[in-house]
Amino acid sequence: MLASVALAHGVTGSDQTFLEQNAGRNLIVFAYLGAKHMVTGYDHLLFLFGVVFFLYRMRDVGIYVTLFAIGHSVTLLAGVLGGWHVNAYLIDAIIGLSVVYKALDNLGAYKRWFGVQPDTKAAVLIFGLFHGLGLATKLQDFALSKDGLVSNMLAFNVGVEIGQLLALAGILIAMAFWRRSSNFHRHAFAANTVLMIAGFVLIGYQLTGYFIS
Description:
The protein is an all-alpha fold. The chain has helices at residues 2-8, 13-21, 27-40, 42-52, 58-82, 88-106, 109-114, 120-140, 149-179, 184-212. The relative contact order is 0.20.
């Protein structure tokens, strides 16, 4: 189960070995690992998929992705460099909740249930904070060398943002082709329902780990 949690954040066994054995500055490798984290982190990709699902203008995509990147960067750096200690299972459960939230938002559930539409930009920023903290908790499990830690973490964060752009490009290209289909809006309900279920699975998995660990 611990291995699966690590995989959710794109930290494989070989990456962990490198991180723990590294001493001194190694900016390129840390940037690569950061990019790999984002591209292979399915929890982040599910959330980003939900965020851009109904965004058609690149300006809007840029605003939301920037808000997510700011939140993710702040808690990633503050968590590792500041030594914030939180339970990884609970943080990852909240990350699963972010996926559920966005799927319900795309389905128009809040307006229909409560008559109020939450501030979507604020929600993306807040959940971005939890996504960054989720990775920070995983990195704190490793015996990271203090030598060059600040510069390495900055490089890692740059890599995360590069990876986010690469992942987002792939998502947007796929979405562009899908939106050309006459069945897109009919399939949108089913797609977001599956997205919501995936979020609930992530929540259940992490809470199970929390209570049996």
